[in-house]
Amino acid sequence: MANTHTLPTNGAVIRALRQALGLTRDEVAAYAQIADSHLGNIELGRRAGSVPVLRLIAERLHVPLDAVVRCGLPKGFAQMADRLAFERLPDEVPEEVPA
Question: How confident is the model at residue 68 (pLDDT cuts 50, 70, 90)?
Fold first, then answer.
């Protein structure tokens, strides 16, 4: 049986990271083995992504899965995460995260 589990997706972050890396929707969609239009709908928040698809998208964008997923975050935290995603490129992630 196919994996049909979906996760709420942070499409704006996916789009911002993709554009920051100079990747087209078609390039990321091909890597994730989905249609360009499907990725467009994920980026616009019209569709959720399946776990395997979101893992491939995150891998292609060089970020962890939780960077492209929005799961029950406290109010205001999601906006802060969005702002950080726009301000920092993926290769600038600190080696150690404070506990």
Answer: confident
